[in-house]
Amino acid sequence: MILTRAIGLTLLLLLGMLSPSNAAEADLRAIIAKFATASNFSATEAVVRELAATGDTAVERPLGALAEGDLYVRKADSLVFIGKAAGGSVELLDPLSGEKSGDAAKSEITKIKVNNTLRRAVRDALGTLTLGAKDPAARIAAADTMFKTPDATNIEPLDAAIASETVASVKALLEQARAASVLVSDRPEADKLAAVALIGGRGDRNALSLLTAVEANSEGAVKDAATAAIANINSTLALWDAGQNIWYGISLGSVLLLAAIGLAITFGVMGVINMAHGEMVMLGAYTTFVVQEVIRNSFPGLFDWSLVIALPLAFSVAALVGLVIERGVIRFLYGRPLETLLATWGVSLILQQAVRTIFGPTNQEVGNPSWMSGSFYIGQLAVTWNRLWILVFALGVFAVLLYVMKRTPWGLQMRAVTANRRMAASMGIRTPWVDALTFALGSGIAGIAGVALSQIDNVSPNLGRGYIIDSFMVVVFGGVGNLWGTLVGAFSLGIVNKFLEPYAGAVLGKIVVLVLIILFIQKRPRGLFALKGRSVEA
Amino acid sequence: MITGRFFAAGADRRIAITIFILLAIAIIVPLLNLAVSPTSAFYVPSYVVALTGKYLCYALLALALDLVWGYCGILSLGHGAFFALGGYAMGMYLMRQIGSRGVYGNPLLPDFMVFLNYGELPWFWYGFDQFWFAAIMVLAVPGLLAFVFGWFAFRSRVTGVYLSIITQAMTYALLLAFFRNDMGFGGNNGLTDFKDILGYNVQADATRSALFAASAVTLALAVFVTWAIVGSKYGKLLMAVRDAESRTRFLGWRAENVKLFAFTVSAVMAGIAGALYVPQVGIINPGEFEPSNSIEVVVWAAVGGRGTIVGPIIGALVVNAGKSWFTGVLPAFWLFALGGLFVAVTLFLPKGIVGMWDSWRGNARALRAASITNPINGEAGTDPAVPPPPKIVRSAARTPGDWSASGPEPQPAE
């Protein structure tokens, strides 16, 4: 989370830097060049003020380098560079863009000297500069940075910025940054208490670490207030953590649902144990790969549509293979479930090896379309777009399937065949056709699951192997022959799994879940939502 | 079981021949390896001894599976787990025998524990420096797991494919568990680098021959035990449970106890197979828990013929010999061949090699009998007025396990 946040910050800063036009850049370069001619500290300070007066965020880099003592002048042509010591020589970076523009020996360059007065001037300049930036995002970034590195000298520029700030949300952030600075200053206790209260209201991890430092370094009322605020933040964070776990669980559940839902149909309606189900998922993922390859090579503009194009194709490919398997193998094995299991296992081996022969054993790269990459925050909750889309997609598939089963003549026939095959046959339903199409439907659903899973998993010939046991667990747990059972089963298994992970670790969590399911099946051998009927086992 | 009674004498003779052959190779192969000079035509190279010794362990595993699947109708997809547990028990003994000869030279801790910064030996490794203790564990650990698992599963009447799936989940869970480094079983590297067994070098030809002989004798013993179980009244009960579980229960038998007995005995046999396997291949790692391994065992039994005693042994030998040949000659096609084998056996050879042989022999014998009773000069087969008796005999000899099927139609999994 911290990492994503840091990346986001950097992106924001970059955005802020990209805004100035080329003309402004030339002006800036002219001013920066004056560093070479400045002969004493006050002259340098004048240049700093001039740079700050431009109000351009691009000057952050050279000014920051100056404060660190990393700004150099090349003796040969009096050009100003940021220097980075690299072994014996110094790597020269352009002061504005930060791009590498050459190397120099230490003797070829002179460092621009700084003293404490100058450093303070630079810091003030930087603070006011970014706080006064036109882009609210840059101001938010500045407030964030100041919050994380509080300093008593920040208070005054922050006061000025707060006074002139118009956007309410940015103003709140600025006030929090000011409060953080107040806590490290020697302001009176009342101010500090107010600051603790303000920061406590922020309630995130940064506030927590700040307050922990305050608690350690202060005493009396401030310390007590900090302790109370920390406890408060911790309980809030625990709630957010639980929320994050639930989200991860829902996300895992949606993956399980996608993988298992096709199985729920073939297993539930036909009683066919299809061990090649995972390979249907794999075929769907490889279809996506092929579609993306074709698009990359021939129609690069369509890349964002690749998944939409892959969906019907993956469905058709997997459904066709499913139909062939049903007509070619499974049809002859009805009534012998254990043999069906073995034969479909054989089919799965053949499919896997075929894909391995055609595409090679290594992982294939399937890209994320732009609308599926990145993430956003709800409070303290990080949500990635691809997981969210997969959840939406899984629920969509579920809804469509539910509609097909409950509202179409085909679904009616399927349910009739499930409930009483002979009676259905005597009513004129062609049960062999229903079987074949049901199996094709289940396989096709697995294929489109493969499209979604290609976005979050490695596309390799072994893709399906990883899902088959989990899918069976979901179907058996939820109750065979019941789509709602599969839905509930998938999400409860996902959430339980993710809640166990922090305590037991990922692998042990999974083992515990497997053991729990095995125990659960002892208690309710027919799953959560068992079909009610009069059929007795033979 | 009309066929069973029909060929009772033949079946018994077959068992006797199998046991005789196994005991004979237990003596002859080591002799040919050790006593015959390497230049002689009768010399058996050491790698062949090791390879066939491995196959014999697989055959024992297949026989163990056949006891539950072929005779009791429980398709266990987790027998590889019992095999691996037996193997780990033996592996732990072999690890303790290394002593201070390991890479790190620690007299007490095996190498991987030194590597993983273990302070002391985990409690469950105590006792494994004694062979008798390890031998008991080889029997007890798989047996106990099977007993507990079976007790829960059979009591709540988890049957058919449900049972298959949860046995698969069991071995999958064990796979994940044994992959963890902090389980104390060497993580994904498993246990290897063995030196001695009972004081003899594991790599030596004589030890390998002895292990081969032990495998062959154990297999012969297992054939006898299986035959004794199957032939007893209890065996009849096993088959009754296989063919009509509810009916057996209505007659007053406790079907769950019958199954639990078979399952536990079978797991112990699988554990012994694993224990014999490990010193011969020199390594045991969590890969043995792979669900795909357990399913492969099922196809050995299916190819040879389930519901027979000799069948799984032949199946294991044939399939593994085929695997060795394929992976040597056409490595890319082995999985195609294996997959095709799964499909072909279930579609065309539901009774396996031995079953086909029996029915072919049965047909031939019945035809002969028919031609004797029908003095119409051998035209019995062409005369539509005479119903051929062999058909009646054949139709009664059903495929094991399909008694419950009312016809070739899908059954909703309820």
Give me the CATH architecture of the largest domain in chain A, please. Orthogonal Bundle
State the helicity of chain A in percent bands: 55-70%
Strand content of chain A: 5-15%
Number of helices of chain B: 16
Give the oligomeric state.
Answer: heterodimer
Helical/strand content category of chain A: mainly alpha
List the domain count of chain A as a whole number: 2
Strand order of the largest sheet of chain A: 4-3-2-1-5
Poorly predicted runs of 5 or more residues of chain B: 1-7, 376-408
User: How many β-strands of chain B, per DSSP?
Assistant: 4
What do the pLDDT scores of chain A average to?
82
**CATH fold-type name of the largest domain in chain A:** ABC transporter involved in vitamin B12 uptake, BtuC
Percent helix range of chain B: 55-70%
InterPro entries (chain A): ABC_transp_permease (IPR001851), ABC_UrtB_bac (IPR017779), BCAA_transport_permease (IPR052157)
Transmembrane segments (chain A): 246-273, 305-325, 388-405, 436-456, 468-491, 503-521
GO molecular function, one term (chain A): transmembrane transporter activity
Signal peptide (chain A): 1-23
Describe the structure concisely for a colleague.
The complex is a heterodimer of chains A (538) and B (414). Chain A is mainly α and 538 residues long. Chain A has helices spanning 2-18, 22-33, 41-53, 60-68, 116-131, 136-148, 155-164, 168-184, 189-202, 205-217, 221-270, 277-298, 306-328, 337-359, 385-407, 409-419, 421-426, 431-453, 465-478, 483-504, 506-523; strands at residues 71-74, 80-86, 89-93, 100-104, 109-111, 375-378, 381-384.
What does this structure look like?
The complex is a heterodimer of chains A (538) and B (414). With 538 residues, chain A is mainly alpha-helical. Chain A folds into two domains: 20-131, no CATH class; 240-523, ABC transporter involved in vitamin B12 uptake, BtuC (Orthogonal Bundle), CATH 1.10.3470. Helix content of chain A is 69%, strand content 6%. Chain A has helices spanning 2-18, 22-33, 41-53, 60-68, 116-131, 136-148, 155-164, 168-184, 189-202, 205-217, 221-270, 277-298, 306-328, 337-359, 385-407, 409-419, 421-426, 431-453, 465-478, 483-504, 506-523; strands spanning 71-74, 80-86, 89-93, 100-104, 109-111, 375-378, 381-384. In chain A, the strands form two sheets. In chain A, strands 4-3-2-1-5 form a five-stranded antiparallel sheet. Residues 16-21 and 534-538 of chain A have low confidence and may be disordered. Chain B has 414 residues and is mainly alpha-helical. Chain B has one domain (21-350). Chain B is 67% helix and 2% strand. Chain B has helices spanning 2-6, 8-34, 46-69, 79-98, 111-115, 131-155, 160-179, 205-231, 233-243, 245-250, 255-281, 291-304, 310-329, 334-348, 352-373, 389-396, and strands spanning 191-192, 196-197, 200-201, 283-284. In chain B, the strands form two sheets. Chain B has a two-stranded antiparallel sheet. In chain B, strands 2-3 form a two-stranded antiparallel ribbon. In chain B, helix 15 (352-373) runs antiparallel to helix 16 (389-396). The longest helix of chain B is centred in the N-terminal third of the chain and has 27 residues, at 8-34. Chain B is globular and about 80 Å long. The two termini of chain B are 29 Å apart. Chains A and B meet through helix 11, helix 14, helix 19 and helix 21 of A and helix 6, helix 7, helix 12 and helix 14 of B.
